[in-house]
Design brief:
Elements lengths: L5 E3 L2 E3 L11 H5 L3 E6 L12 H15 L6 H11 L5 E6 L5 E6 L5 H7 L1 E5 L17 H8 L5 E5 L5 E4 L3 E6 L2 E4 L10 H12 L4 E3 L4 H4 L4 E6 L3 E10 L2 E4 L6 H5 L6
Parallel strand pairs: 6-7, 6-13, 10-11
Antiparallel strand pairs: 1-2, 1-5, 3-4, 4-5, 7-8, 9-10, 9-12, 12-13, 13-14
């Protein structure tokens, strides 16, 4: 296996570099949309891979921005070729419809993080993402937040201090015999796993509340975690804030319930 392979504009390329025009808006302004998916059972058609949901989210952004759609058949062809080499695919689309697909491997310490949890820090509100309903190539604020703290993940907040999402995923909390997750109206990314979990929990008659995560609410949680399509669910055991730290139980029994989605 090799990292020196990617798909771009209908071609499989063996290289570590991508050539772009110096006036390309994707290069100048981060004018791209992307989605990152984990391939389960070596198949784009696996329910957990959820290929169609990832394409639908790309399409939503392309239509919102008035950009050209890619050749969807060709885009799938590139993904099909790369999944032989990588379990994780990042699919990017430029404003003129060009597709760019890269692959990577699962984090080496993923199982440890899933089992024991991670440390997070709360970022200031200036690090909130632009166009939060879309995954655009302009991820500078989330990247800066992630690299500015001595923590494994960072929680982004709004101007009132409400917790929104992490730099890479959606937040989940447990208290009062219910799961909580911030609402989309708060200005967060509509994560694919977030949607899957909401549906899965509701189908299993489990209580889920979409409410803003105020300073008061986050202190009531017994357990919290973040989710995305690559890491599934990662508990958070410590959150550093300017005013002190919060502790949560990464071994809470509620996690066994929510992990059921990935065992289906």
């Amino acid at each position: 296996m090799t990292n020196n392979i990617f798909w771009y504009d209908g071609k499989l390329i063996y290289s570590q570099t991508l050539e772009l025009d110096i006036n390309d808006p994707g290069l100048l302004y981060g004018a791209t949309v992307f989605t990152t998916l984990r391939v389960y059972q070596n198949s784009l058609d696996s329910n957990l891979t959820n290929w169609q949901a990832h394409c639908d989210r790309l399409l939503f952004s392309l239509q919102t921005f008035g950009w050209q759609q890619p050749d969807w058949k060709r885009l799938r062809q590139g993904a099909q070729i790369l999944l032989v080499h990588f379990p994780v695919l990042r699919i990017t689309v430029f404003p003129d419809g060009r597709e760019w697909i890269t692959g990577r491997f699962l984090p080496q310490n993923l199982t440890e993080k899933q089992n024991t949890g991670v440390v997070c820090a709360v970022a200031s509100s200036e690090f909130s993402r632009s166009l939060p309903s879309h995954k655009t190539g302009n991820y500078l604020s989330a990247w800066l937040a992630r690299t500015s703290f001595d923590a494994q993940e960072v929680i982004l907040v709004d101007a009132q201090g409400n917790w929104l999402e992490t730099s890479t995923g959606n937040l989940w909390g447990w208290c009062d015999r219910s799961w909580y997750t911030p609402p989309l109206t708060a200005g967060i990314l509509p994560g694919i796993v977030r949607s899957q979990l909401l549906n899965w929990l509701q189908n299993h008659q489990q209580s889920v509340r979409e409410e803003p995560w105020s300073v008061e609410l986050v202190q009531r949680f017994e357990a919290i975690a973040y989710t995305n399509s690559v890491v599934e669910i990662i508990p958070i055991h410590t959150v550093y804030q300017p005013s002190g730290s919060l502790q949560y139980n990464p071994y809470h029994p509620s996690f066994q319930q929510i992990r059921g989605l990935f065992l289906a």
